[in-house]
Predict the structure.
Amino acid sequence: MSRPKGDQGQVLSSLVAVVAVVAVVGGLLVLFGTRGHDSSADEPKTTSTPKPSAKPSSGGPSTVGASVPPRKTTAAPTSEPTAVPTPTDPPAEPPTTAPTQPPATRPTTIPATERPAAEVYNNTPRKGLADQVAGRARQAGWTVSGVDNWHGKIVESTVYYPPGMVQAANQLARDLGVARTKPALDNMKKDRLTVILTADYTG
């Protein structure tokens, strides 16, 4: 049985509408499906940074140790050693000039012709001491006018001199080894020297 042409036209238009609807739905599915995939692709990919291993691998040097530059140690400046003289080498001393000393003044020597006479007295228990010293005085160029014992207390051996005969007394004392000279006492002669010997005399 054949359908009328009007009905056939309706069927075709219905099929076209269904196909159009299916195409629209498929296009929407494809559109949303692709957009969702692209959205995940557009997100930045986060890459995890590998943490350095604290334990070096057995195969080679550690990357952590290699990345740290070695610390440079600067040695403290040392001062140059100073030369210390050894104890065996005494320090050099500047040359010293010996101080010039004034020449020693020599005692005045009185000529034998100008010397006064002298008397020698023994004031010790030693016998013959006055004669012994008188002989020594004569050998030195003195004139001995008398030898005797002295009675009295004399502190030490002395050559007594009257006024004006001090130089002669000093010379006679040096010749006899007597250490002291003094002015003459009142009971002594005023024209000569008087020598009194005591126990301290060792001449």
Observations:
- Strands lie at 118-122, 144-149, 158-161, 180-183, 193-197.
